[in-house]
């Protein structure tokens, strides 16, 4: 009921009360106030009931390629290959990753972007105990593994990570919130010991001979986050759950997760924010050889829950750019990432750019050539131009954001002409997409 309806009702009720011969003006005013409040309450209840009916019937309004369910914007899955890429505001992302100090490991040993896998199925070589499958999403590029509730997923990696390693992946969460708690999401690493890294026994309880996991328990206004590590089934480290209010702002948007292990030290970042830095978070003995993801159960139906992962990357060793540039005269990194087919540097590259800038700042007299390389996807000419533009973008970032002298940097591009790995595999293409820094003076 609008304001004019209330005014008309007020006049009508006043005449009606006088006609009834209500004893006094005070009585009339009191009775009128009660009636007015009841009318407003009834009008509000009708609006709420109508809204509940619309939600209950699943009538979703399309907004920018998404649908609104409950109080959370939900991205629709689609089987088609054509997608519209969302280009985030770069200023916002640079600010979000301003304190990011993650630098990926020196050597990539595993990569999975699911580009070569079939939608509607589990990625090749992966193992799971429920119906987790690959899907495409409106306005979000790439293939994504949608985790089923009450499931554990094991990657196809079987290589040992060594004492120093990094793991990265993209996470997207979306929920049709109805007042209940959504399922909690866990990600972590394990050492499988004497069994295969994809053995079925690890699906029942992914601990192996040692493990750790981070748990995100989503809430309507954020999430509770906790970290635990185990030596077999004995708990080695435990953190008390802490509230992360910003996570709710990222529902329906990809966020970047990064993990770094240095012997016992364990560090974890979420969209540039360091969640944990634990000096003795990793148990000794044995080496990790598996990354796992799990989703718990909830009162929600499967179609009301969307938890997706993509772009999994594992590297071993620690970056040694300083030594390589000083002794060998050049070093290469796959840690500077770009939007697909573009020269736009992704925000998760900030840690690497800072690291490189600190090396260059130590020897300001040095002249460095920044060389861009691409994989072999696309035609030669386009990749050549793209590699040149990416090298220029790196130079621009180093000079404008980190104060490196422009005169000390030159740029060039090699396109796909100098691969260091097989372009027929995801891992190989990931290694080929790199930026080299070559000392020329």
From TrEMBL:
Membrane found in the keyword field: yes
UniProt cross-references to Gene3D superfamilies, sorted A to Z: OmpA-like domain
InterPro entries in UniProt: Bact_OuterMem_StrucFunc (IPR050330), OMP_bac (IPR006664), OmpA-like (IPR006665), OmpA-like_sf (IPR036737)
Compartmental location: Cell outer membrane
Domain spans labelled OmpA-like: 325-441
Keywords, ordered alphabetically: Cell outer membrane, Membrane
Name of the protein: OmpA family protein
């Amino acid at each position: 009921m609008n304001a004019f309806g209330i005014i008309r009702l007020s006049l009508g009720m006043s005449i009606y009360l006088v006609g009834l011969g209500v004893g006094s003006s005070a009585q009339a005013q009191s009775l009128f106030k009660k009636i007015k409040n009841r009318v407003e309450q009834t009008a509000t209840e009708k609006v709420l009931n109508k809204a509940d009916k619309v939600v209950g019937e699943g009538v979703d309004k399309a907004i920018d390629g998404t649908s609104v369910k409950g109080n959370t914007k939900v991205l629709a899955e689609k089987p088609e290959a054509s997608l519209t890429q969302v280009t985030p505001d770069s200023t916002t992302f640079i600010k979000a990753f301003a304190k990011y100090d993650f630098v990926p490991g020196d050597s990539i040993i595993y990569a999975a972007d699911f580009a070569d896998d079939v939608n509607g199925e589990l990625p090749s070589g992966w193992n799971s105990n429920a119906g987790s499958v690959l899907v495409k999403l409106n306005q979000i590029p790439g293939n994504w593994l949608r985790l089923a509730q009450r499931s554990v997923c094991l990657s196809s990696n079987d290589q040992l990570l060594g004492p120093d390693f990094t793991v990265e992946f993209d996470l997207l969460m979306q929920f049709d919130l109805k007042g209940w708690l959504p399922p909690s999401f866990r990600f972590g690493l394990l050492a499988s010991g004497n069994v295969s890294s994809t053995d079925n026994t690890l699906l029942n309880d992914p601990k192996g001979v040692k493990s750790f996991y981070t748990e995100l328990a989503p809430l309507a206004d954020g999430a509770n986050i906790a970290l635990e590590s185990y030596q077999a089934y004995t708990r080695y480290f435990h953190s008390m759950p802490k509230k992360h209010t910003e996570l709710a702002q990222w529902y329906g948007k990809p966020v970047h997760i990064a993990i770094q292990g240095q012997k016992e030290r364990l560090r974890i970042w979420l969209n540039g924010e360091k969640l944990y830095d634990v000096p003795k978070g990793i148990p000794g003995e044995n080496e990790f050889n598996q990354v796992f993801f799990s989703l718990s159960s909830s009162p929600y139906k499967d179609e009301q829950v969307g938890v997706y992962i993509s772009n999994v990357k594992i590297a071993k060793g620690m970056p040694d750019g300083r030594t390589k540039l000083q002794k060998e005269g050049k070093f290469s990194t796959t840690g500077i990432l770009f939007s697909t087919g573009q020269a736009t540097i992704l925000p998760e590259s900030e840690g690497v750019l800072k690291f490189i800038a600190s090396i260059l700042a130590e020897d300001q007299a040095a002249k460095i050539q920044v060389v861009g390389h691409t994989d072999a996807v696309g035609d030669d000419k386009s990749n050549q131009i793209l590699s040149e533009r990416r090298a220029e973008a790196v130079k621009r970032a180093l000079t404008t954001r980190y104060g490196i002298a422009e005169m000390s940097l030159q740029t060039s591009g090699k396109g796909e002409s100098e691969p260091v790995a097989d372009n027929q595999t995801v891992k190989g293409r990931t290694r080929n997409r790199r930026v080299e820094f070559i000392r020329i003076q």
